Amino acid sequence: MTTEHSSMRLNADTILAERVCQQLGRFPEKFRELGEGGELRKLCRKPTTLSGPKVQQSPEDFTEQYLIEPVLHGLGYWNPISEKYTGTGPHFVRRPSTYHKIEIKRPDYLLKNVSPTLDCILEAKAANKEQLTGSKRNATSDIKKYVESNTFAKYLESREKRYLVAIGTDGFRWVLWVKDVRTGETKDAIAEIDMEAAISSIAKRASVIEGEPDHTTAEIRRFLASEFIPAFAARSLPEYIQNQFE
Q1: Which among 69, 74, 168, 191 could disulfide-bond with 19, CB atoms 3.0 to 4.6 Å apart, if both were Cys?
Q2: Which residues does residue 64 pair with via DSSP β-bridges, in sequence order?
């Protein structure tokens, strides 16, 4: 990779990091609107589960609507119902029926038009349902089933795909798995990102929860640009996946 290319990539990653940082702010703002800053404080301090009655909808739907989908938008995956979506380029599809003939349970999301060489699915859970340590790894458990499915791999290979990419997330934690469907080789958890500290700092800076932020906005952007964007953004995901098998 040339120095010029590296500089361009760094600049693009920084721009996307700023967008993701802005989208993360929507989550604490919703808690402010609901008058439930205390509920967010609990989520950020310990592995408690989100209370449906306090957020006035199911915890998983709330997490998808106010955290996961905004972050996907920041990463370059359009919501197809957006007025700005042109009908082309990377976008997400909720509860896709694409695989209904081979899988009884369909994934929560399909990330489409990322690359002709791969299919990318995403399993979403309610906030704090996915921990990076211990047994509470609900999203990882689901994506593992897809990655280990020979039927799923054969279907993708028949469509001339090379990779199955699977993302598991509860909005706070993001985990990336990939399988080469031609060889069967699987790479487990090639990226594991915890956004809890970033979300907590953003919420504190916005006075949604009390306390001084542990990280500055610049530090959060640098963290996102160096750790999160390269592995999960629509523009960089195909290259990141390919590099895992070289």
Answers
A1: 74
A2: none
